[in-house]
Write a structure and sequence with these properties.
This protein is about 80% helix and about 0% strand. By secondary structure, the chain is mainly alpha-helical. It has one domain. The longest helix is centred in the N-terminal third of the chain and has 27 residues, at about 5-30.
């Protein structure tokens, strides 16, 4: 395994764990049972990646083939279920872990799209879809309007992170440093939007 592939896999696992925590926290807040917590944890962690792989024609999706994604999701779900009081002591833990997962998957999605031969526009859009997929699936399972449709800059942050990856590729810059910078940019934009209430205009109808 090359350094680049190992680095990409590490990002994928970190993003999976972060989204799994956010899914489990939402499940606990909605008073789901242990199965519900683990289901929401796995769904939030893998939905974006599964959608990415399906759109790229990579079948079956990696998150279903590789047992480590299920193991990471279950570990995050169990940790949250039995230690949710400690996790909740963080400030806005769902939003923090969700922002981390968003940044990771936006970068991974756009990178894999480029590797698959997609053009700049397609790679940026797939990066966004990868980033927002897990959060959307998580929210819909508990009958909430997905965050991407109503909260502070969410999909926009994913688009910015993915666009930076594509720009770096077009300029032939080293991929790993650009990936890190893109994740930091995406996370920072999302976090600042949470802190300051930045959002797109909302329909007045």
């Amino acid at each position: 395994m090359t350094f680049a592939s190992a680095f990409a896999q590490l990002l994928d696992f970190v993003g999976t764990f972060a989204f799994a925590i956010s899914g489990a926290l939402v499940a606990v807040r909605n008073r789901l049972d242990l199965f519900g917590v683990l289901l929401l944890s796995f769904t939030a962690a893998t939905a974006g990646g599964v959608l990415r792989d399906v759109l790229l024609g990579l079948m079956p999706p990696l998150a279903i083939v590789d047992w480590r994604y299920l193991a990471i999701s279950i570990a995050a779900g169990l940790l949250t279920f039995f230690r949710h009081a400690q996790v909740e002591r963080m400030r806005n833990p769902v939003q923090i872990t969700d922002a981390i997962g968003l940044a990771m998957f936006a970068v991974i999605g756009s990178t894999r799209a480029l590797d698959a031969g997609l053009g700049p526009g397609g790679a940026i859009m797939l990066g966004m879809v990868s980033g927002i997929g897990g959060g959307m699936a998580r929210d819909m399972l508990v009958a909430q309007v997905p965050s991407v449709l109503k909260r502070e800059l969410y999909a926009v942050a994913a688009l910015v992170g993915a666009a930076m990856i594509v720009a770096g590729d077009m300029l032939d810059l080293p991929r790993e440093p650009i990936a890190v910078a893109s994740m930091v940019l995406c996370f920072t934009l999302r976090w600042l939007a949470i802190r300051h209430g930045w959002r797109l205009p909302v329909s007045g109808g």
